Amino acid sequence: MKNQNPIIEKLRAHIVAECDPVDREAAFNSMLAECYSFDAVGGPFAHMCPSRVLAECDPTAYRCGVNDYADGQDWSEIGTETYQDDDIARARDEFCDGLRDELQALETELEDEQAADEPDAGEIARLESAIAAKNDEIEACENYAF
Question: How far lies 95's CA from each of 15, 101, 106, in Å?
Fold first, then answer.
């Protein structure tokens, strides 16, 4: 889903670039393998992965199981991929830290301009506007829910 705010699109792109997507089916398959085994049953299913048996015998139940399992995890979707919420939080923090660094540079530039022998009122106004916009970007990124 496209967001109209360009900074949110940059945040989403940063997260996608920095985080590894979760393979929902692989995670579900691992959970099934940890919980169930057909070894004791014998017959045609012996030594088969429970996820394979479920997927082949009842593909609808398998897809529902994957979705139900995913719903119970701390995962969020960005675009068509699923990511760990902890990874998203780390990437968001990194992105916001970069915005804060840009804000600090703008504030330093404003202080320097204000301290100049002949401050440029137009440049001061531009910097104040840029600082306000950067603060808005930081707030938007910090408060955006995936």
Answer: 8, 10, 17
**How far apart are the C-alpha atoms of 97 and 33, rounded to whole Å?**
40
Domain boundaries, the chain: 1-21+84-141, 23-72
Could you report the per-residue pLDDT of 76-94, keeping only the tens digit for each? 999 899 999 999 999 999 9
Does the pTM of the predicted model rise above 0.85?
no
Distance of CA 12 to the CA centre of its chain: 7
Residue 90's SS3 state is helix
DSSP of the chain, one letter per residue? ---S-HHHHHHHHHHHHHSPPP-HHHHHHHHHHHH---TTT-GGGTT--HHHHHHHH-HHHHHHHHHHHHHTSSEEEETTEEEEHHHHHHHHHHHHHHHHHHHHHHHHHHHHHHHSSS--HHHHHHHHHHHHHHHHHHHHHHH---
